[in-house]
């Protein structure tokens, strides 16, 4: 049994069709799942590229960067898709990524995008999601949340992308006063989970009034479940922005195909798949019905990629000190 | 020393394989690390929290398991076999499934708090150190019950017969028979639960309530993922190894097998337990334990059944893959555990290798294996076989903890007789050991299969599309907002895992009774 499995695995790994070039895209797990954008993207790209597009899933965004570093220059991957603005500087520092050769069309992003290596493929705002029937008037900002007795579920910034997003959000909004804000929030926090799924699962089980997620989360419940009760609470400080990016690896042996994929990534065919599979905003083109019901923050907060690392470390120390009591 | 030299070699080989697979990846990670690593204040806080919660969890799990095991040991009732099998269920549940089940009972909106609220009583919170300990007791008390129950089963029926003839009451029996047995069994049970909780990750963080509930395993995970500091990850992994080794040596020093002499393997009759008070106490112990363990499982079933209609087809193919992996794990676990257990009768230190995996961080093993394999083959293509191997490593310590004492008992009771008959090597295994080992072997096989099917394992590091196992699929369903489908798939996972356990465990006990 095992031997045949190993044999099958080895064959699958080596016996590629001689005349069909293979493009390997390393991405996060939920992108490649049956419900993610992966399957639709794969068939659409393969219809035009004359190639075999293979996705490899590796945990979430942070795990993805760790994987790229582990594989180093020997990596078989050509494109890495799914890093975000908080990881971009660290990714650039590895020297494993190469500038793209893509003519970038106009993008619908809340910020201007100028980067010669990383290209955005979707974006969203972090937000606290609640049940609008159980909590009709949610707190309007972090201060009000800290003073209220509304309970919240958050994720650990050291193991989760949204958790790190919240850390940066509070820091970007409050700067020096971020520590105070966290101290006020500490008695609202029911628990800190390792990842988004655990926190969101607990929220749906009724363990807290609000959960840290995205402004787009209610769209899933509305479109896929016809449940209009979930809502994201608009915060007056503005909302922290997450832009998800992709880039070409310098060691790719098919740089032209990788560029073709990055160009495809910004095309309508790819972008229309994103909203209802990745539940994020596309960087180009229209959004489907249901997305118009979502809150649109007045202010987008974002720490510049090159400062993100330093801000993160200071903010983490404050967070830990405030919540350790 | 010609006798059994081959089995000793086999045992040393098995120990070597386990040592290589556990320590090799750690060495690979250390070699790849750049520069010296230092530990911060918060790392030491994580070590303190880890040891505290593991110690509390171990003491509570085992202390609560004693009355339950005692009650099960001296009562015969219909459904006893099923109940004992059912006791194994929490231990083999995937963590997040079990946590959601526990929360459905003890959470803010759970059954308990709804009841308290209806009575006008204040609600209780499950979040905090006590919640972590509660969850660990839920997971590990059943295992402790099984280990202790085995201790009871090893007191020969003749001893109780003699005690009854001498007019011993329950307290005299406890002093003369049960306490000496417990002194031998409890340290091992406490150690194994302590070691399991030492590597706790998701339970501690999800129920711990905040960053002060950081365990060493979580710190390792963060060192890899957040800082990509391989040196620090390796250093933390070494600390975890040292803690484990310390605990293991403490137990080896403390534990001594009670020597009851040989019996005739007859069913045990307990004349001393025919008192109303004792009967009530035993009933209560069994009922409370069953309620505590079964309520969360029942909630998982209630939550999962309606969702069964909506689960995607990929759940079934993932179930098949998981079953295949579990099969591989079971064979490998027994192939490693049996030689190790037999050899450890002569060379005690060989057994220590078998416990290494419990101390090893799954994150380090996965990453290290990746580093070792990546230059040679595509690890993604080997995702499922690798998962089977690593799951076998993770199941090995439990298998060994069950097999080693059972073997020790057989050798102590029948070894000299077998020696005098010159029964060695394969024939000794065939005629002396295996017939008396069916029950523990079946239990081990069931445990290995069930643990393997429920464990996320290293497949999460390597899985390509189309190679998901069931736990990975559940994780992906949850990450895509599909909590209902995940609940349905969790129910299938729980049933598959329990069915495998029951199949092997039942086989072992039937063979033993023949």
Question: What does this protein structure show overall?
Answer:
The complex is a heterodimer of chains A (325) and B (514). With 325 residues, chain A is α/β, with parallel strands linked by helices. Chain A is 39% helix and 20% strand. Chain A has helices at 2-14, 29-32, 38-49, 61-71, 88-93, 142-147, 161-174, 178-185, 196-204, 217-225, 255-265, 268-271, 305-323; strands at 22-27, 52-57, 79-84, 97-98, 119-131, 152-155, 189-193, 210-214, 230-233, 239-249, 281-282, 300-301. In chain A, helix 7 packs across helix 13 (305-323) and helix 8 crosses helix 13 (305-323). Chain A is globular and about 65 Å long. The relative contact order of chain A is 0.18. The model of chain A is unreliable at 1-17 (pLDDT under 50). Chain B is 77% helix and 0% strand. Chain B has helices at 5-32, 41-74, 80-87, 89-92, 95-106, 111-118, 129-153, 157-165, 170-198, 202-208, 216-225, 230-254, 276-307, 314-343, 348-359, 362-373, 383-420, 425-454, 459-462, 470-479, 483-513. Chain B starts with a helix and ends with a helix. In chain B, 55% of the residues are buried. Classes of the chains: A alpha/beta (325), B mainly alpha (514). The interface between A and B is large, with 64 and 61 residues.
Helix content of chain B: over 70%
SSE-based structural type of chain A: alpha/beta
Count of extended strands of chain B: 0
Average of the residue pLDDT scores of chain B:
82
Order of helices and strands of chain B: HHHHHHHHHHHHHHHHHHHHH
- Name the largest protein-protein interface in this structure: A-B, 64 and 61 residues
The proportion of residues forming helix of chain A, as a percent range, comes to: 25-40%
Order of SSEs of chain A: HEHHEHEHEEHEHHEHEHEEHHEEH
Low-confidence stretches of chain B: none
Question: How much strand of chain A?
Answer: 15-25%
């Amino acid at each position: 049994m095992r031997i045949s499995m190993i044999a099958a695995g080895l064959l699958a790994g080596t016996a590629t069709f001689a005349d069909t070039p293979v493009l390997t895209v390393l991405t996060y797990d939920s992108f490649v799942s049956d419900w993610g954008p992966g399957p639709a993207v794969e068939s659409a790209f393969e219809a035009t590229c004359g190639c075999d597009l293979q996705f490899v899933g590796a945990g979430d965004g942070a795990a993805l960067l760790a994987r790229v570093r582990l594989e180093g220059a020997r990596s078989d991957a050509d494109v890495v898709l799914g890093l975000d603005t908080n990881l971009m500087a660290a990714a650039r520092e590895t020297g494993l990524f190469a500038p793209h050769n893509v003519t970038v069309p106009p993008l619908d992003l809340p910020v201007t995008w100028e980067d010669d290596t990383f290209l955005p493929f979707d974006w969203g705002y972090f937000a606290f999601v609640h049940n609008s029937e159980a909590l009709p008037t949610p707190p309007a900002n972090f201060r009000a949340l800290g003073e209220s007795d509304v309970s919240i579920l958050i994720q650990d910034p050291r193991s989760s992308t949204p958790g790190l997003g919240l850390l940066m959000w509070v820091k970007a909004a409050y700067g020096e006063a971020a520590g105070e804000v966290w101290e006020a929030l500490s008695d609202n926090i029911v628990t800190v989970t390792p990842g988004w799924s655990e926190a969101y699962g607990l929220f749906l089980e009724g363990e807290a009034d609000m959960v840290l997620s995205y402004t787009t989360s209610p769209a899933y419940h509305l479109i896929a479940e016809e449940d209009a009760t979930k809502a994201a609470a608009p915060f007056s400080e503005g909302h922290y922005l997450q832009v998800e990016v992709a880039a070409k690896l310098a060691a790719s042996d098919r740089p032209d195909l990788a560029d073709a994929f990055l160009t495809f990534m910004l095309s309508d065919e790819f972008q229309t798949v994103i909203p209802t599979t990745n539940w994020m905003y596309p960087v180009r083109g229209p959004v489907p019905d249901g997305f118009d019901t979502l809150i649109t923050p007045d202010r987008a907060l974002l720490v510049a990629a090159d400062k993100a690392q330093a801000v993160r470390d200071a903010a983490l120390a404050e967070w830990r000190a405030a919540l350790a009591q | 020393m010609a006798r059994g030299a081959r089995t000793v070699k086999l045992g040393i080989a098995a120990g070597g394989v386990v040592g290589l697979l556990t320590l090799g990846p750690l060495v690979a990670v250390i070699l790849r690390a750049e520069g010296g690593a230092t530990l911060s204040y918060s790392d030491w806080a994580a070590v303190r929290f880890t040891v505290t919660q593991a110690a509390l969890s171990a003491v509570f799990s085992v202390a609560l398991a004693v009355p339950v095991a005692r009650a099960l040991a001296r009562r015969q009732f219909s459904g006893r076999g099923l109940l004992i099998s059912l006791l194994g269920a929490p231990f083999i549940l995937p963590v997040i499934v079990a946590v959601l089940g526990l929360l459905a009972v003890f959470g803010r909106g759970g059954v308990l708090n709804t009841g308290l609220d209806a009575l006008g009583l204040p609600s209780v919170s499950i979040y905090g150190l006590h919640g972590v300990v509660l969850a660990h007791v839920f997971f590990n008390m059943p295992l402790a019950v099984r280990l202790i129950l085995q201790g009871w089963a090893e007191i020969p029926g003749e001893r109780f017969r003699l005690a009854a003839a001498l007019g011993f009451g329950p307290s005299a029996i406890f002093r003369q028979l049960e306490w000496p047995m417990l002194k031998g069994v409890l340290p091992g049970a406490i150690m194994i639960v302590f070691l399991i909780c030492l590597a706790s990750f998701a339970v501690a963080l999800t129920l711990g309530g905040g960053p002060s509930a950081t365990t060493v395993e979580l710190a390792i995970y963060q060192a890899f993922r957040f800082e990509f500091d391989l040196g620090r990850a390796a250093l933390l992994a070494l600390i975890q190894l040292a803690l484990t080794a310390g605990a293991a040596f403490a137990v080896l020093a403390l534990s001594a097998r009670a020597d009851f002499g040989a019996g005739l393997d007859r069913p045990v009759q307990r004349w001393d337990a025919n008192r109303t008070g004792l009967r009530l106490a035993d009933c209560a112990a069994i009922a409370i334990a069953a309620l505590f363990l079964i309520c969360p499982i029942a909630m998982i079933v209630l939550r999962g059944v309606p969702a069964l209609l909506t689960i995607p087809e990929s759940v079934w193919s993932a179930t098949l893959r998981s079953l295949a992996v579990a099969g591989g794990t079971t064979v490998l676990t027994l192939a490693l555990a049996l030689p190790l257990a037999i050899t450890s009768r002569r060379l005690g230190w060989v057994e220590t290798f078998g416990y290494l995996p419990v101390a090893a961080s799954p994150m380090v093993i996965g990453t290290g294996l990746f580093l070792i394999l990546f230059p040679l083959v595509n690890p993604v293509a080997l995702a499922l076989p690798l998962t089977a191997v690593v799951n076998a490593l993770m199941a090995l310590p439990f298998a060994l903890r069950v097999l080693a004492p059972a073997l020790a008992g057989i050798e102590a009771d029948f070894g000299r007789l077998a020696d005098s008959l010159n029964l060695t090597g394969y024939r000794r295994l065939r005629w002396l050991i295996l017939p008396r080992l069916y029950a523990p072997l079946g239990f081990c096989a069931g445990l290995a299969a069930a643990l393997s099917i429920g464990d996320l394992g290293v497949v999460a590091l390597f899985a390509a599309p189309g190679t998901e196992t069931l736990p990975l699929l559940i994780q992906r369903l949850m990450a895509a907002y599909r909590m209902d489908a995940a609940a349905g798939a969790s129910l299938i996972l729980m049933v598959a895992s329990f069915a495998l356990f029951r199949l092997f465990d039942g086989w072992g006990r039937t063979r033993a009774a023949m």
